[in-house]
Amino acid sequence: MSLQVYNIIIGMFCFAFGAAVGSFLNVVVLRMAKKESFLKGRSYCPVCQKSLTAKELIPIFSFAVQKGRCRGCKSKISWQYPILELVTGLSFVFAFCALGLRPRLAFAFVLFAVLIELSALDVKTGEIPYHCSIIIAALGLISFIVSLSLSQNVKLSEHIIGLFIISAPFAVLSFLGAMGGGDVQLMAAAGFLLGWSVVPSALIGFITGAAAGIIIKLTKKTGVISFGPYLSIGIAISYLYGNEIIESYRSFLKI
Ligand SMILES: [Zn+2]
């Protein structure tokens, strides 16, 4: 089998796996927003409470076949479901294309799933849950220990700098009311994971967030924007390409 065919097949697996993870994230988001436990009970229709069968749980496909309506009560199913499944699937494919098949890909999958969950919850509830930042910080700790045990060139100081370099100015902004406390925690955790690469992630988050803010203001839907999704885009890009971004910036400045 040629390498190209092999990569396409793995890419398709990554998409299917990501879509299934996205389907699970939908349940987590729905139940977290309602403050229910997401560990017990089958998935159900939030309108008629009907338990969903295996056929109704196939990511994206079920939504398309049922034309976006519940098979029991015919009420409309939120677009959140297929969108989250699609975005998670695509983000997993993207991670595979950037990293290839190696241990770091597993970290990327966990990170992307958490980022997508916190983004959806931030949009829905206006808050980034505490446990999402804890998971990201734990990823940082585990990857640090793994690289240390493989005696790779890692410096704890870089992770510590990352922990504060963005979260400290964010804490000031939060004190002034321009940022939520969840954003501060998120950038502290992401900084611990990414080290210096957290700087481009914050810049990407600010630029995309400001652009979206202007569009939202112009369409006058709401005055408040959640920064979670934009910071998450920045963190995801920096996780995959952070070193390259910093290197090209350095060579641009010739330092
Ligand atoms: Zn229903």
Distance between the termini: 45 Å
Q: Please state the CA-atom Rg, rounded to the nearest Å.
A: 20 Å
Q: What is the H/E string?
A: HHHHHHHHHH
- Pairing-aware structural class of the strands and helices? mainly alpha
State the shape.
Answer: globular
Number of helices: 10
Beta-strand percentage range: under 5%
Low-confidence stretches: none
As a percent range, the share of helical residues equals over 70%
Count of extended strands: 0
**Main sheet characteristics:** none
Please describe the structure with a list of short key phrases separated by commas or semicolons.
255 residues, binds zinc ion, 2 domains, mainly alpha
What does this structure look like?
The protein has 255 residues and is mainly alpha-helical. The chain has 2 domains: 1-101, no CATH class; 103-255. The chain is 71% helix and 0% strand. It contains 10 helices and no strands. The chain has helices spanning 3-33, 61-65, 80-99, 103-125, 130-149, 156-165, 167-175, 181-194, 198-219, 228-253. Helix 3 (80-99) runs antiparallel to helix 4 and helix 7 packs antiparallel against helix 8 (181-194). It is globular and about 65 Å long. The N and C termini lie far apart (45 Å). The chain binds zinc ion (ZN). Zinc ion binds at residues 45, 47-48, 50, 70, 72-73, 75.
Walk me through the topology:
Layout: H1 3-33, H2 61-65, H3 80-99, H4 103-125, H5 130-149, H6 156-165, H7 167-175, H8 181-194, H9 198-219, H10 228-253
Helix pairs in contact: 1-3, 1-4, 3-4, 4-5, 4-10, 5-8, 6-8, 7-8, 8-10, 9-10
The structure holds zinc ion.
Zinc ion binds next to loops.
